[in-house]
Amino acid sequence: MSDLTPELLLHGYRVGIFPMSEARDDPEIFWVDPRKRGVMPLDGFHISRSLRRAMQRSTWSVTIDRNFEGVVDGCADREDTWINAEIRSLYSALFEDGHAHSLEVWEGEALVGGVYGVVLGAAFFGESMFSRRTNASKIALACLVDRLKQGGFLLFDTQFITDHLSSLGAVEITRAQYHAQLAHARDRPASFRTAPEAGPQDVIQRMTQIS
User: Fold this and answer.
1) What CATH fold (topology level) applies to the domain 6-210?
2) What is the CA radius of gyration of the chain?
């Protein structure tokens, strides 16, 4: 795929597809349209007892859009990654235009986990996450779900299902079901930055009160 622009990238999300590369050093980018799609129901996030305890005891801080490129680099810092240089550049451009966001988990001044994705209306398309400490990515996802709920989002697209995501409540739906949910969410208003930054203890307290 050549001449991929941030505008074309957003259009891809709008029609239900997303880009990937085979590897870090592979310059080719291709569109993906899975037959089965992973989504995280915003009212179905599962917090295990161990995760609840970890969040209650956590001294980590959570920020929004503080270090977008650091989160992307953290997600790409693995042996096998689909994030090549062009993809990194494209998502950085989306971030600069306000169409992509990151959530960071900090241990003091060290970035220990995070997640980033694209926003279109009331749909959030989770691209990737990383963890450098036990439970850091789970806490990042819990804080992200909390933020999406507070911001009025209707769809949290995880693209694929992994055992990790499934354990947290993600489910797999058909392509047709996904397109119906996307059509319902993509033109509705939502705000990623409405809620103030909240740490793990704040989020688990709010989730416990709601449940």
Assistant:
1) Aminopeptidase (3.40.630)
2) 16
Q: Where are the domains of the chain?
A: 6-210
CA distance linking residue 59 with residue 166, whole number of Å: 26
Q: By three-state DSSP, how is residue 145 classified? A: helix
> In sequence order, which residues have a C-beta less than 8 Å from that of residue 211 and are 6 or more positions away?
none
Token digits of residue 102: 């990151």
Contacts by 34-37 with C-beta closer than 8 Å and gap 24+? 34/159, 34/160, 34/175, 35/174, 35/175, 36/161, 36/172, 36/173, 36/174, 36/175, 37/157, 37/159, 37/172, 37/173, 37/174, 37/175, 37/177, 37/178
Q: What is the pLDDT confidence band of residue 133, given thresholds at 50, 70 and 90? A: very high
**Phi and psi at residue 28, to the nearest 5°:** -75, 140
Give the per-residue pLDDT at 195: 87
- Please state, for a pLDDT cut of 90, what percent of the chain lies above it: 80
120: tokens are 């279109």
The amino acid at residue 87 is I
**81: left (phi > 0), else alpha (psi -120 to 50), else beta?**
beta
Most confident of 19-33, 71-85, 175-189: 175-189
